[in-house]
Specification:
Shape: extended
Distance between the termini: 28 Å
Strand order of the largest sheet: 2-3-4-5-6
Largest sheet: 5 strands, antiparallel
Number of strands: 7
Helix content: 10-25%
Length: 128
C-alpha cells in the first residue's frame, strides 16, 4: 500500500521539536551563552528562560546549517527531553525525494490509514 499524509506545523512539532522551534520558544527570553563544537559543527549555544517557569531550554544552533542541531527541553519532575541530529552530512538532496509519486494516495488521518489498510488486506468492518 502506498500512501502519504500531510501534517500542519503543530502536528510536525509532536515528532520533531527542531522543526517546531518557533512554537517552543514563543514567549521565552533568548540569551547566547557560548560557542561550541558539536558533531563537527561550530555552534552557538543559547538558553531560553521564561518568567514563572522552572528550568531553561538549551539549544545549539549551527549558522552553517541555519538550524538547531541539539535541543534540551526540561520536563516535569526534573526530567528532560533531548533531541539531537547525529551523523550530519552536508550536501544537496535530490529533488525527486520531495515529489509525491503518482501511485500514492493521500490520507487525511490515521483513521483513514487504518481503514485503507483493512481494505487492502480484506478485513471488513462488522455491521452492528
Amino acid at each position: 500500500m502506498k500512501f502519504y499524509m500531510g501534517f500542519t506545523r503543530e502536528e510536525i512539532f509532536l515528532f520533531n521539536p527542531i522543526i517546531g522551534w518557533e512554537m517552543i520558544t514563543e514567549g521565552y527570553h533568548e540569551e547566547k551563552v557560548s560557542s561550541e563544537m558539536l558533531n563537527g559543527l561550530e555552534c552557538e549555544k543559547y538558553i531560553y528562560s521564561r518568567e514563572g517557569m522552572e528550568g531553561i531550554i538549551e539549544s545549539w544552533y549551527s549558522p552553517e546549517l541555519k538550524q538547531q542541531v541539539k535541543v534540551i527541553i526540561p520536563l516535569m519532575h526534573s526530567e528532560q527531553s533531548t533531541f539531537e541530529l547525529l551523523n550530519i552530512q552536508v550536501g544537496t538532496q535530490d529533488e525527486k525525494y520531495f515529489i509525491i509519486p503518482d501511485d500514492y494516495i493521500e490520507l487525511s488521518s490515521m483513521e483513514d490509514a487504518e481503514k485503507q489498510i483493512q481494505t487492502e488486506i480484506g478485513i471488513e468492518e462488522s455491521a452492528s
